[in-house]
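Tokens as discussed.
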């Protein structure tokens, strides 16, 4: 991953300026090699606020307004997953390099179509997997690959909850639940971590779901848990809930024959050392405990942008990256289907 600040400057547009979109707007506005040429959002007040706050040169209601602009070479797509295919494929065919927020698509058919368009156009597409840039997760992955937990099988417990404490917060989450499930939206990040840590393929996935909110659609859940079995014998659990009743919490733990690694985010540390960053607690059997502090930083979207620029300038092949995004998407889509149907789904 390059970090160079020099070189050609790129005109960029962000499509979708709510939620993660505003984080991308800020990243484009502050990146040393991009100019924020346009922001796009169907909500007038949102796009006008973004234009004012981040000095965007243009603001549009319709993404098609940017397609023929030669001064825009990069596009960030941060809209609802159901719109990704149409927008991403149009941008690729217009000659743009694209960073698309996860999940890549709401179905494997649409994801395949997007990947086929990359092959057809020769343009570059990267998917917004921000945990690839999270230093603590990268350190944990490195430690496990170097044998910190011994050989597989591993147990991976990646749990998290979100307390929707305000009506505004719940309305935002509910819109996303209507669009997709919490297990799909966030789970693709953490199933991706499981695949990176083990280097193994998923064999089967099971899932359970629950509706604790009266407004949650009858065909979806506000709570999900997926259990994944890998072909090296490893097992992973991913749990997520977005409700008024759930609490904000995170539990990230990796266990192997030789020890245990636990990751605690800086803001959740209870040892009085939050300012020291994220904490990696490494227990080596039979009794050695090591604490490693890592610089905090969760949404490092500027580094995603740098990677897209490097991918374009160095003509890097993106197919391995897209295969990884597709692989994690396939698992969480199957996990959600398993939760809906109450069964285990075999992937091999």
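Sequence:
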């Amino acid at each position: 991953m390059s970090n160079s600040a020099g070189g050609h400057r790129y005109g960029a547009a962000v499509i979708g300026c709510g939620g993660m979109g505003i984080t991308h707007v800020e990243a484009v506005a502050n990146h040393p090699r991009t100019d924020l040429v346009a922001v796009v959002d169907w909500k007038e007040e949102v796009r006008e606020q973004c234009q004012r706050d981040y000095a965007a040169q243009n603001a549009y209601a319709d993404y098609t307004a940017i397609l023929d602009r030669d001064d825009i070479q990069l596009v960030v797509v941060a809209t609802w997953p159901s719109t990704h295919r149409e927008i991403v494929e149009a941008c690729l065919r217009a000659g743009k390099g694209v960073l698309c927020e996860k999940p890549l698509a709401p179905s494997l058919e649409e994801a395949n179509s997007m990947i086929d368009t990359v092959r057809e156009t020769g343009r570059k597409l990267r998917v917004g997997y921000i945990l690839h840039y999270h230093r603590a997760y990268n350190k944990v992955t490195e430690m496990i690959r170097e044998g910190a937990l011994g050989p597989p099988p591993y147990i991976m417990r990646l749990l998290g909850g979100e307390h929707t404490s305000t009506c505004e917060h719940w309305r935002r989450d509910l819109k996303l639940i209507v669009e997709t499930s919490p297990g799909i939206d966030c789970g693709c990040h953490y199933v991706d971590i499981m695949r990176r840590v083990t280097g193994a393929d998923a064999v089967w996935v099971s899932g359970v779901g629950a509706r604790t909110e009266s407004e949650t659609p009858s065909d979806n859940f506000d709570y999900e848990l997926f259990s994944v079995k890998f072909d090296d014998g490893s097992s992973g659990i991913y749990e997520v809930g977005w409700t008024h009743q759930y609490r904000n919490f995170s539990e990230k733990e990796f266990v192997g024959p030789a020890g245990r690694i636990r990751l605690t985010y800086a803001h959740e540390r209870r040892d009085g050392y939050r300012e020291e960053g994220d904490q990696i607690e490494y227990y080596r059997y039979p009794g050695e405990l090591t604490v490693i502090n890592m610089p905090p930083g969760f949404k490092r979207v500027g580094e995603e942008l740098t990677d897209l620029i490097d991918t374009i300038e160095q003509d890097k092949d993106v197919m391995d990256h897209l295969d990884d995004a597709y692989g994690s998407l396939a698992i969480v889509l199957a996990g959600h289907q398993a939760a809906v149907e109450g069964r285990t789904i075999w992937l091999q």
